[in-house]
Amino acid sequence: MPEPRTGVFICNCGTNIAKVVDCDAVAEAAAGMPGVVVARSYKYMCSNPGQEMIAQEIGDHDLERVVVAACSPRMHEPTFRRAVETAGLNPYLVEMANIREQCSWVHDDGARATEKAEDLVRAAVMRVAYHEPLERLSVDMCPNTLVIGGGIAGLTAALELAGAGKLVYLVERQPGLGGNVARVDLTAPYLDSAPDILTDRITRVVEHPDITVMTNSELVRLDGFVGNFTATLAVNGNDGPGEERRVDVGSVIVCTGYREFDASRATHLGYGKHPNVITSFEFEHMLRQGRIETKEGRLPQYVAIVHCVGSRSAEFHGYCSRVCCMTALKYAHEVKSALPGSYVSDVYVDMHAFGKGCEDFYRRSAEVKTLFLMYGKGEHPVVRRADPGDDCEMLITVDEQLSGETIELPADLIILMVGMEPREDAESVTRLVNISQDKDGWFIESHPKLDPVATTTDGVYIAGACQSPKDIPDSVAQARAAAARILGKIAKGKLEIDAMFAEIDQDRCSGCRVCNEICPYSAIEFDAAEHRSHVISALCKACGACVATCPSAAIKARHFTDEQIFAEIAGVLG
Amino acid sequence: MAIRANPKLIEELEPYGAEDVMKCYHCGNCSAVCPFSADPYVFPRKPMRYLQMGLEEKLEGQLDPWLCYYCGECSDQCPRDAEPGETMMSLRRWLTSRYDWTGISRLFYRSWRWELLAILLVAVITAVAFTLFGMSQGSLSDYDGPNAFLPSSAIHIFDWVLAAVLLAFLLSNAARMWWFTMGRDKDLPKSPGSYISSAWMLPAHFLTQMRYSQCEHKGPWVTHLALMLSYCVMLVLIMFFLAEMASGPSVDWRVHVLGYLATAGLVVSSILFLRNRMKKSAAQYRHSHESDWIFLSLILAVALTGILQHILHRTGLDAAANVTYIVHLALVVPMLALEVPFSKWSHLAYRPLAIYLAQVRATALARARRGDGKQQPSAEQAAPLRTA
């Protein structure tokens, strides 16, 4: 067993560690461990004097390895790596023993905790002996970006990137740009015109010299890794045999949006059965035509708007589609202003008016005398044809919650607020760009709060309603956030890649391709000519799955070698 | 069985003053702050909901609006400015028009022009009729005595005839009120005993308005009680002691001490209410319906002409006193004939009756529950007319 000159530094973390663990005793015990030439205990190892002490001891004792027994490496490993680097030591030659979260914070018995701390330090000392100096890789960052989807999110992201002088390829499967926003009349809560918002963006995108718009087109293959992707696109594929085009991009933004819930699935609402039960998108179409009328061409006297169609139900989707409540209020306003003599009812479960200006909008909707009727979650209104002699076309039976009464509401036109759901091809998109879906089918972000537009695949971002139902402002914010993330990487020019990744010994690889399938990051490529697999180090997250799977033991994870792990086990067992 | 909602009903109620009810989003603050709201009479929230949804029959059957005295706390607490207090007031006006089978009340509440025109018409007829009657059998220069222009004996008979007519209207309307709120409710257990055991409430609440005194601010109750008691004292004096009232010019203190007190009560309280409404000094005075102004103005005018008539007679100006008497009668008759059965004054009957019926209803429900043996009535169910 190698015994490089090792220094051990025990942090007291104020009293966080020292109040349970006898740090001086640990230092004393460490001094006797294999290869250890110096062992010291100190109040705050992460402080500047603490770091300087480590650097000083490296020089004084000619240390080859360093062990810091302190907090979790998630907390201060980067700190101590930088500290040893200043003393001229490779940063990967430092190992941390976690004697705070995994020892002092979880034990009361000082003597036994001290014993455990010694075991953890011994494990680190024995492991670090096998560490190898590693170099971080650096790759070039291609400044071009592929934007998938030409809705409001895709258009915004493209304009943002092109505005910074970067090339953008915008692919849209439909013949025209604009996505779902192109189907909308006015927007809530300020009643701005959606066509006005959109037309300006589309014109700027189409005319921008740095944006290549490809409609009737789609991504068919994405190769490479962050900063260095090659996207294969089927251009004009919908009109006969498509032309295949390859473009080099550094980043990808997925803005594939959503589709609306199929209202005929909610059979009790009579969509498809009663001609005057229509979806919100059909009503938007009516508004854009400029005339609200029944299928028979009459002006409706009673208009009913039913919320949560497909959303927030055990039967269909459990989630809230977020935009329907305010859109429904918008309808109430539009109907009241177009047909002042009409009666508008809003049949809802809960009113979600969380956005800026929305609570005021809700109040104003009540002021124009909208009748709000609440039905219970898990229940559903039932639509039936009115009886002869009634002054309405249809009747909606509602178990009204605020009165406790079961009522029948007259209606001539019923608008169903259909929820959002993932597009039918969402799963194939996840496979193309190697991202994942949640239980409802929405694309998963890297961190729901702190990293909302990145994904687990470096260089692939998500923006807009493909991530979860959202309105125009949120979609635009995400698109701009994704663009900003990409511009930041482009500005750096080079991408630094962690030195920890898997490597395949080409002599031992049998080309069985088991690892190709097992890799959750699609980081292993198969070279058909050589009949060998190899790891794209920029994509590898060093999870170790391939290492464990390889039947030929041909794969080694850097910094997690078998020797290192066995030594650590031996150490902890004393 | 589903009840048909009628989104149009709110428009029917708007002329009665329910202009803001659609703003309500049922947070329930109004019912929480109300000292009287308790199961099974949860208001203002529940009647407001019925009104929004247009559940006409449910509304007609409600006693709740009469259990409210409009202290204004609910309107002050409302986060939506939906004016729950004024909505309750509007519902009382609407219910009055529903109880009235003649349709006159509906006409008055929906159009102040009609109400004023009717008052004017009755006033003119009264003035002409009494003038002709006076000229036919007396002398304008005699206030009392054998040649009196308007002898108290004749007026006395007229008073009793008028009272009988008004009572007939009021009783028939009250019967309709009973039918709407109790009679036609099939779910309500029959309990004749509770009508008897609660009977004391009718005169008690009429005379003391003891529930009103439980509102947080006592001022409105005191003023209202003063107005009501003054009116009652005056009514008793006129109905039973008119001859003593009309004699003179010396003052018969046995009746006049009460007369002066009652007159002062009428003048002061009506002026106070008018002033509050003009200044919009509190929530309950912010929204005045035309019927409120007409009612208070009539009371004040009647009181003032009565005072003037009294002074003129005592100072020996009999001719002037007689002319004033005619004017006084021309105000009194429409005030009684139109306001008592058809407009604001009808609440003198409906409110105590509602409090009584609410107790009867609650007792009947509680007894039925006890009879089932399933559940003992809680203290609140047995006596649901919560006192503060």
What oligomeric state do the depicted chains represent?
A: heterodimer
> How many angstroms separate the termini of chain A?
15 Å
Ends apart, CA distance between termini of chain B: 37 Å
Radius of gyration of chain A: 31 Å
Please report which band the strand proportion of chain B falls in: under 5%, 5-15%, 15-25%, 25-35%, 35-45% or over 45%: under 5%
User: Which structural category fits the helices and strands of chain A?
Assistant: alpha/beta
Structure overview:
The complex is a heterodimer of chains A (574) and B (388). With 574 residues, chain A is α/β, with parallel strands linked by helices. In chain A, 30% of the residues lie in helices and 25% in strands. Chain A contains 15 helices and 30 strands. Chain A has a 5-stranded parallel sheet with strand order 10-7-6-14-25, covered by helices on one side. A 5-stranded parallel sheet of chain A has the order 16-23-17-18-19. In chain A, β8 and β9 (192-193) form a beta hairpin. In chain A, α6 (152-163) packs across α7 (194-207) and α6 (152-163) packs parallel to α12 (472-492). Chain A starts with 5 loop residues before the first strand and ends with a helix. Chain B is an all-alpha fold and 388 residues long. Chain B is built from 19 helices and 1 strand. In chain B, α7 (84-99) packs across α10 and α8 packs across α9. Chain B is elongated. The model of chain B is unreliable at 373-383 (pLDDT under 50). Classes of the chains: A alpha/beta (574), B mainly alpha (388). The interface between A and B is medium-sized, with 23 and 22 residues. β22 (406-411) of chain A pairs parallel with β1 (3-4) of chain B, so a sheet runs across the interface.
Question: Helices, strands, pairings?
Answer:
The complex is a heterodimer of chains A (574) and B (388).
Chain A: E1 6-11, H1 23-31, E2 36-42, H2 48-61, E3 65-70, H3 73-86, E4 94-98, H4 100-104, H5 110-128, E5 137-140, E6 145-148, H6 152-163, E7 168-171, E8 186-187, E9 192-193, H7 194-207, E10 211-214, E11 218-225, E12 228-235, E13 243-249, E14 251-254, E15 258-260, E16 277-279, H8 280-289, E17 302-309, H9 324-338, E18 343-348, H10 358-367, E19 371-374, E20 382-385, E21 394-399, E22 406-411, E23 413-418, E24 420-422, H11 426-433, E25 460-462, H12 472-492, E26 494-497, E27 502-504, H13 514-518, E28 524-527, E29 532-535, H14 545-549, E30 555-557, H15 562-572
Parallel strand pairs in A: 1-2, 1-3, 3-4, 6-7, 6-14, 7-10, 14-25, 16-23, 17-18, 17-23, 18-19
Antiparallel strand pairs in A: 5-26, 8-9, 11-12, 12-13, 15-24, 20-21, 21-22, 27-30, 28-29
Helix pairs in contact in A: 1-5, 2-3, 5-15, 6-7, 6-12, 9-10
Chain B: E1 3-4, H1 9-13, H2 29-33, H3 45-53, H4 56-60, H5 64-67, H6 73-77, H7 84-99, H8 104-110, H9 112-137, H10 152-183, H11 192-197, H12 201-208, H13 219-246, H14 253-279, H15 283-286, H16 290-314, H17 318-342, H18 347-372, H19 379-382
